[in-house]
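$ ./design --mode recover --in tokens.txt
reading tokens...
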């Protein structure tokens, strides 16, 4: 319970730091929850002001709040903004020099920081973990930002996410009796199954759940079927030409495609850059700055770009390749229209048979085959594992063990006794994995004829709002209206 006096301080600090007179719903509700030290699951659309919800409570407390963030760019952007406001925030990641990391850890040990941004891997690195476990270090809470990454990446790409549920009990062993360490997960895109996975993996205790619909009335959704690779490029070119000098994004699925498309578009008079995880940190920061400063009209990028980067005037988003999951899709179209003004989102997709352009079909098949291969490897690895073990020792013997252990955890065959020690639960019933269903859901969305927003709302658990919905501004709704007019 937050007292009236304490809440007045919250409102005063909010105005002093950010200059706003009042919170946008449900910011106030979320901040009260975190101030009361309750676990929470927060699902809010992109551009809804999620960061302020955990930054403000953290700044008003003595001690540090740990923010687990998936990308270096996201950490850098948020910390830079906080430091420009003279606020006690820092970040530790692999691109920092060792002396910088040591300097920041000293600030942690002296309780001089209020926010510390870390990746899951950095959190569980030896020096950082040892520093945080020191009894005098006051930790006020754990925030999982962009929590959908736990579901999208945690089993295969970033297996350390699967160990985060063991962090709280492990840290509390080193803290004074009675210490509370609440955990809050924030995301813009999580369907009911993903929400359940987040709560289970993080071991949230009676969490306060705040969930907003992903519906964005200013986002106009459309899908265009293309028949050949050349037709795909022409459709992209026609779309981009319709927005002269207006900021946008083109999402692709491979680094190579990002580079090739940018190179193809530049001679046509466009100010464009290619962005992907293969670029150095300085190059990525430069491209972000050029785009945010509107010196670069648009970026051809992989999913590595855009998370947490706030460009309010993005008028269009084009998926040159469709994502493999609807969560990824909603996250990426959410970059558009964050100022509340109309924005268009177009997805290009090969016709269903893939006879003339099998690119999408091959990519989805590769995605499913890769998942099946990893599961087979996990089953094979478990035969050579002891019933209990230390992950560092296992990794020295088996380079791919981290992914295998994460998959076993997702199937209910392994528990983490602490972030570094596992116990096998062989013989336990396997949890259903939705990996292969995600492509099926994506295909149904792309080739379906009903209102696109209705499909998305159903997928993300908003059945009541979706019932009978016709948004009127997606391509399917507009086609239906046109048919009705012609029928009259």
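writing sequence...
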């Amino acid at each position: 319970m937050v007292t009236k006096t304490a809440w007045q301080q919250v409102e005063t600090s909010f105005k002093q730091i950010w200059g706003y007179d009042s919170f946008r719903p449900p910011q106030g509700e979320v901040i009260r929850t975190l101030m009361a030290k309750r676990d929470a699951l927060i699902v809010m659309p992109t551009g809804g002001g999620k960061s302020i919800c955990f930054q403000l409570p953290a700044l008003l407390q003595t001690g540090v709040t740990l923010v687990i963030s998936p990308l270096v760019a996201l950490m850098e952007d948020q910390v830079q903004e906080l430091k420009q406001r003279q606020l006690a925030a820092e970040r530790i990641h692999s691109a920092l020099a060792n002396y910088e990391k040591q300097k920041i850890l000293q600030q942690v040990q002296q309780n001089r920081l209020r926010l510390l941004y870390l990746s899951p891997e950095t959190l569980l690195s030896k020096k950082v973990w040892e520093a945080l476990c020191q009894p005098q270090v006051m930790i006020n809470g754990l925030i999982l930002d962009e929590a959908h990454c736990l579901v999208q990446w945690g089993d295969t790409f970033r297996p350390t996410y699967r160990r985060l549920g063991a962090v709280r009990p492990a840290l509390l062993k080193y803290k004074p009796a009675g210490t509370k360490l609440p955990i809050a997960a924030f995301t813009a895109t999580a369907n009911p199954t993903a929400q359940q996975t987040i709560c289970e993996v993080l071991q949230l205790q009676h969490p306060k759940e705040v969930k907003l619909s992903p519906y964005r009335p200013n986002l106009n959704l459309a899908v265009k079927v293309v028949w050949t690779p050349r037709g795909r490029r022409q459709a992209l070119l026609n779309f981009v030409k319709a927005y002269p000098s207006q900021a946008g994004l083109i999402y692709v699925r491979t680094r190579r495609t990002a580079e090739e498309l940018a190179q193809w578009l530049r001679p046509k008079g466009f100010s464009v850059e290619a962005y992907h995880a293969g670029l150095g940190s300085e190059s990525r920061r430069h491209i972000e700055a050029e785009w945010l400063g509107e010196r670069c009209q648009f970026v051809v990028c992989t999913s590595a770009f855009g998370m947490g980067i706030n460009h309010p005037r993005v008028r269009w988003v084009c998926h040159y390749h469709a994502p493999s999951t609807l969560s990824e899709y909603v996250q990426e179209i959410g970059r558009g229209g964050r100022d509340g003004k109309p924005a268009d989102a177009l997805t290009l997709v090969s016709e269903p048979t893939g006879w003339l352009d099998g690119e999408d079909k091959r990519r989805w098949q590769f995605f499913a085959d890769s998942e099946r291969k990893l599961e087979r490897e996990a089953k094979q690895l478990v035969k050579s594992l002891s019933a209990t073990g230390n992950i560092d020792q296992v990794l020295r013997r088996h380079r791919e063990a981290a992914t295998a252990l994460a998959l076993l955890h997702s199937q209910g065959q392994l528990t983490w006794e602490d972030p570094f020690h596992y116990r096998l639960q062989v013989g336990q019933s396997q949890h259903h994995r939705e990996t292969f269903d995600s492509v099926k859901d994506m295909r149904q969305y792309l080739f379906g004829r009903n209102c696109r927003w209705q499909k998305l709302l159903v997928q993300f658990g908003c059945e009541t709002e979706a019932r009978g919905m016709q948004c009127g501004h997606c391509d399917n709704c507009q086609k239906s209206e046109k048919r009705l007019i012609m029928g009259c």
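exit 0
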